């Protein structure tokens, strides 16, 4: 890895983290989702352990790329800056669009197939921050962000589960 590569990576990571925060998603919110997913398997799991696993997920470049791509599209749609038909599709979170879920798969994939089950479950239940992100009444566009946040939590849960299995 050259210094230049490193610089590009840290720029993506910084942007991904900053945009998550600016769009109202904190580490605590994501940790809460990981706890929701893992509590019944690991009753002693702490928020700190959840955050550690989220940190590791956020270090992956494919995760950073998915985050900045999805949030960028949400922001452009919110400002009315996309071309049709994308502008209408993304700003109304059209249910048959599906590219938001496809992008999220890139995040889930980083720790293997167990992530799919976690993601499916959390997407159906919509606990915590996911409920806010799915609430269309506040005028924000979170078409991509809800799937991204669910996927980060699912990937962090998978990492946690893999590591727990290895130490048992
Ligand atoms: Mg969505």
TrEMBL record:
It comes from the Bacteria. Gene3D superfamilies: PgpA-like. Pfam families: PgpA. This is Phosphatidylglycerophosphatase A. Residues 29-162 form the YutG/PgpA domain.
